[in-house]
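Q: I'm building a small set of examples for a reading group on sequence design. Run inverse folding on the following structure and report the sequence directly after it, with nothing in between.
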């Protein structure tokens, strides 16, 4: 019995050492577009995946107006997405998923979709599109994407 106990303790120690040695290291999270004033990063990359924050047309530095068309705002949003994906080392051909929020889905879905289809490659991501009250009355569309690095 004492010999058996010593063997069991030695085996437990060996097993613990192996488990600790095999524990995966935590991969870094890289955040881009972080500013002192901004409440979020423009993108975050982790484990071979790039996550973009939601993008609206004013993210390009221009203004938005209630007279804008959803197609115009969508094209502006997609140009910013291209830039942010490039900054993270990837592009739209590597998209995994997209979420689209429209101010008026019944009135704007078709025109947003035309702009989307002009932009997206043949490597189309999964996508959901819903209606939502956006942060400002002049915002017609917001898009968030996830891409492989």
């Amino acid at each position: 019995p004492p010999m058996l106990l010593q063997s069991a303790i030695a085996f437990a120690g060996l097993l613990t050492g192996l488990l600790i040695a095999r524990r995966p290291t935590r991969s870094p999270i890289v955040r881009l577009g972080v500013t002192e004033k901004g409440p979020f990063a423009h993108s975050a990359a982790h484990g071979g995946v790039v996550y973009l924050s939601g993008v609206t047309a004013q993210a390009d530095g221009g203004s938005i107006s209630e007279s804008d068309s959803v197609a115009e705002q969508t094209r502006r949003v997609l140009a910013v997405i291209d830039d942010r994906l490039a900054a993270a080392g990837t592009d739209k051909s590597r998209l995994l998923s997209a979420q689209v929020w429209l101010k008026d889905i019944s009135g704007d879905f078709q025109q947003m979709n035309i702009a989307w289809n002009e932009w997206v490659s043949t490597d189309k991501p999964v996508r959901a599109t819903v209606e939502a009250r956006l942060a400002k009355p002049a915002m017609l569309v917001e898009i968030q994407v996830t891409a492989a690095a």
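The chain has a mean pLDDT of 92.
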